[in-house]
Amino acid sequence: MVDLLKQEMNKKNRIIFGCMALFLFIVTILMAIIGKDTKTLDGLKLMNSFGGVTTLIETLITIIVATRFAGVDSNKQVRENIANHHSKRSIFFAKLIASIIAYLLLLVVAVIAILIMKYLIFTDMPLAGRLSLELQWAVLGNMAYTLIFETFVMLVIGFCKTWYSAIAFGIACTYITEIIAGIFMIFIYVHRELIYNPFNFFFVEKQIQDGMKHMMTRLTMNQIVAGSILYALIFFVLAYIIFVYVRHFPTDEELVAKREAKKQKKQKIQNA
């Protein structure tokens, strides 16, 4: 497991992650400065909206998860590790742990940047009390959404063959889940049992930030938080089963044989 984690946190991945963290830090600071100048942000909104960078954090961790669990480089690494007698189970959990560490570090970077901005330009309210509570709720909301969304991405991302298609599809899942949730919402008012469909719980972060969103989801705060955790566990178990027992990672010989077979089939069609 230690060797697998070292692979996931190799020099190339550390450099890419460092650039992501720096980009997040700069954007968080710029969002606060622009918000202050345009009067669209104050200390309370800064905390409540998590600095306005929740979408960026979720995009960055989606890129990390997508490239960890799908794409040519990831599949090649899995094949090599299997050849070196590592189990699919240990490979899966190494990728999972590396993704969790990356997310927590991004979260810390964002919190540090928000606190710096609070003390530099949003000095009208003390951090203790309501501001601190709003920041805690914002972090909780981001964690709850990331948990359910990224386990969903892990579940559906396996079919992507290249790193760029994995990233594109992973990011697209944000809009896909919202569209499906919107379709369900059309029928929620007539069929109340549909409030428990999994896509309704993807609004967990928005409802934690704005309690009035319960008018849209028709779920209480306790229901949406508990439900998002439950569905995340279901997605996680399914993602684990698919990765370990369903997905096939062909060897180099099998890939060469497959290419040759396609080449021969193409030649036969041309000669026919």
Automatic annotation (TrEMBL):
This is ABC transporter permease. The keyword Transmembrane helix applies. It comes from the Bacteria. The lineage of its organism: Bacteria, Bacillati, Bacillota, Bacilli, Lactobacillales. The keyword Transit peptide does not apply. The chain crosses the membrane at residues 15-34, 46-71, 92-117, 137-159, 166-190, 224-246. Signal peptide: none annotated. Keywords: Membrane, Transmembrane, Transmembrane helix.
